[in-house]
Amino acid sequence: xxxxxxxTYLAPNMRPVYEFIAHAVAQRxxxxxxxxxxxxxxxxxxxxxxxxxxxxxPYTQLVQRFPNTVEPLAAPVLKGERxxxxxxxxxxVIVRRDAPFTRFEDLRGQAWAYxxxxxxxxxxxxxxxxxxxxxxxxxxxxxxxxxxxxxxxQMVVKGEVDGSAIDCQVLMVEMRARPELAEQIKVIDxxxxxxxxxxxxSTALPESLRSEIRALVTELHHEPAAxxxxxxxxxxxxVAVNDxxxxxxRQMWAEREAARFHAL
Length: 264
Hints:
Layout: E1 4-8, H1 15-29, E2 33-37, E3 51-53, H2 56-65, E4 70-78, E5 88-96, E6 111-114, H3 120-132, E7 142-145, H4 149-157, E8 163-167, H5 168-177, E9 185-195, E10 199-202, H6 207-219, H7 224-232, E11 235-240, H8 247-259
Parallel strand pairs: 1-2, 1-3, 6-7, 6-8
Antiparallel strand pairs: 3-10, 4-10, 4-11, 5-8, 5-9
Helix pairs in contact: 1-6, 3-8
């Protein structure tokens, strides 16, 4: 079998987990695998990648454009009471610790950073939260694309912007790696939950192979080596998901479209 190419479109600080999974698939299923950083979501459709770690928002948009081409297999369950054993995550709204803001509404007219427009946690959920709170377009004084959640965090720390919505998993990993952040930023609000980013595969792969990959990934947490790596991402385990698992994100897109709220 040709090399099974895994692609990641997610935060760089989670790469060790994705590398471990790609390697586990190679070892257990007897196939060659590699992991690369994606440049276009269409890579999962046109054969440049056969499996990918992808945000739920671009996943739903991808399969809307190219139906039945990509299938989500599994998604992580994060450690912590607020996740309640479900494959969900939140967006934590951060500001500088010395800032006067105590709730999201205080950021009206202020500078906001987002990672990228395709992001569920950094962009789509912000728009939907504005809508659901009756705040609407034009809330921020300016909105700046940072390119990554980690960049958004730094922009808040440096005072280049006033706030940002950060994928809670990315934030937990960053705050553990950089303890000084606890003295530099604070969380003043939370958006979500959303169904968390899946491992998705091309439906060009045989159904039997897709099933094997799903079974393997959802059983990895039983192994000490896997649990150690998963701890890097505060992951309890991976559980099976399917296309319908991302209907919550589709609903958010429908709300945006109905309100014609297309950009921050």
